[in-house]
Amino acid sequence: MEAATKEVEEEDGEAIIAIADVSDSIAVEKAAELIESKLGPIDVWVNNAMVSVIRALKENECGGV
Q1: Collapsed DSSP state (helix, strand, coil) of residue 19
Q2: Would the pTM of this model clear 0.70, i.e. be above it?
């Protein structure tokens, strides 16, 4: 997010990062209010919410991979 913000600012744009837990609707609303109070209406909203588990699978662990 910092890199994207820097790119926007290098092109004379304005950007703000507002981090909120998307499962918490009140936190999302507060983030939106913060953004709109500083920059006006939101044009683009990037939601980067993800949970993952990464590990190697052994042969036959899932019934014969």
Answers
A1: coil
A2: no
